Amino acid sequence: MGERKIIRHKHIGDQYLHLLEMGRKITPTERLISLFQMQEEYRQIHNEPTKKTQRTIIIKKPTWI
Prior knowledge:
The protein is about 50% helix and about 0% strand. It contains two helices and no strands.
C-alpha cells in the first residue's frame, strides 16, 4: 500500500463507497500482507512479543466418572 491520505467526505455513505472502491483495487494477497503489517504495527505500539508463546492442551479424565 502507498501512503495514507486524509480524505473528507460530504456524506457518511461516501466513505463506505470509497473503502469499497479501494478494496476492489487490491488483490487478496495484498490485503493479507497489509493485515500482517497492521498487526505488526499494533504489536510494536502495545509492546507485545512478536513470537507466539508455546501452548499445550492437557486433557484430563473428570473425577466424577
